[in-house]
Automatic annotation (TrEMBL):
Entry-linked InterPro entries: Dimeric_a/b-barrel, DUF1330
Domain DUF1330: 3-94
Identification of the protein by name: DUF1330 domain-containing protein
Signal peptide segment: none
UniProt organism field: Hyphomonas johnsonii MHS-2
Gene3D superfamilies named in the record: 3.30.70.100
Length: 100
């Protein structure tokens, strides 16, 4: 079953963050990741949304997403993101529709 990552990011240092962006896709796609949305101008329908970037990503499964997130290559790369921004990142299971 598919799994989704939602990241809410406040980028403070675009130059350092660009080092994260430059190599992100290489590590991400090796684990079956697919970017569904990267948006810096979301349309807020309710509540507050004070993030400079919102990301929605899909993986073929929760284990694949965790394997990507925990891999040495991504964690080394994530150090640039951590240095340049503050983030909330969650992993969600896909909704399993009830056939009846």
């Amino acid at each position: 079953m598919a799994a989704y990552i939602i990241a809410q990011i406040n980028i403070a240092d675009r130059e350092t963050y660009s080092k994260y962006e430059a190599r992100f896709m290489d590590a991400f796609t090796r684990f079956g990741g697919r970017l569904l949305s990267v948006d810096e101008n979301v349309h807020v329908l309710e509540g507050d949304w004070s993030y400079t970037r919102t990301v929605l990503a899909e993986f073929p499964s929760k284990p694949a997403a965790l394997e990507w997130y925990d891999c040495h290559e991504y964690q080394a790369l994530a150090a640039f993101r951590h240095a340049a921004s503050v983030s909330n990142v969650v992993l969600l299971d896909a909704f399993a529709a009830n056939p009846g």
